[in-house]
Amino acid sequence: MIILGLTGGIATGKTSASEYFKSQGIPIVDADLIARLVVEPDKPAYYHILKHFGHLNILESNNRYIDRKRLGEIIFTNEQMRKQLNKCTHGYIRREALKQLLKYFFQLKSIVIWDVPLLFEVGLNRYLSHTLVISCDQTIQLDRLKKRDDINDNQQALQRINAQMSLNEKCQRARYVIDNSGTKDVLHKQLKDFLLNIQPNQLNTITWFIILCIPMSFMYGILRFLDFVDTIKYRHKR
C-alpha cells in the first residue's frame, strides 16, 4: 500500500486535489478532520485538554464540546499555552491517523492519501516515501486567496501566505509536484496521469499484506488499548 502525503500552500488547490482523489475511490486520511475528531467528548485528548485548560471555561455553554474558537483565542497570543495544546493533541492525532491507515491496509487498498496541511512543518515527510505538493504561481495564489476569503488588501493576503513554509521549500522537499496554475480540468488531467504512474502492482499489494498482516494486527490492537487506557486515566483525573 502506498501512503501518499498530500500538502500544498494556502489557496493552491490541495483541497481540489483531495476531492478528486476521493472521487476516484481513493481513501483520504484527513489531518484536519482528525484534529476535530480527537477532541470530541470522552476521547483521550479531550480529557487531556480539560486537565490543562478546563479552568479557562473552554466548553460550549449548551453541551460538553470544546469551544474551538474560545480555545483558539486563548492560545493565539500565548506561545506556552499553544505548545501545551500541541502536546495534548499531536500524539493522539498521529495515533488516530495511524489507525485509519491500518484500517485501509486491512481493506487491501493500494493507495491512501494522507492529507496534511503541515506535512513538512511537523516532519511527517520523514516517514513517507511518497509526498505530493500542489503548487501554483504566487500571483494566482494571491488572487485565489483574496477571492476565497474575501480579502481586499494585498498585504493582508501576503501575510497569510508568508505565515506558512514557502511553496519553493515545500516543492524542494517533495518527491512529486503538480502545478495547479491552470483550470480545474487541467488539474484533474494531471492527477489522473499521476495516479496511473504511481499505481502499485496488485500482486505486490497482496504479497505485502500477507507478510505484514500479523504485525499490523498487533499494532492496531496496541493502539486501541492505549486509547482505552488514556480515556480511563484522564477521565478519573478530572
TrEMBL record:
InterPro entries: Depp_CoAkinase, P-loop_NTPase. PANTHER family: BIFUNCTIONAL COENZYME A SYNTHASE-RELATED (PTHR10695:SF46), DEPHOSPHO-COA KINASE-RELATED (PTHR10695). Keywords: ATP-binding, Membrane, Nucleotide-binding, Transmembrane, Transmembrane helix. PROSITE patterns: DPCK. This is Dephospho-CoA kinase. The chain crosses the membrane at residues 206-229. One of its GO terms (molecular function) is ATP binding. One of its GO terms (biological process) is coenzyme A biosynthetic process. NCBIfam families: dephospho-CoA kinase (TIGR00152). The keyword Transmembrane helix applies. Pfam families: CoaE.
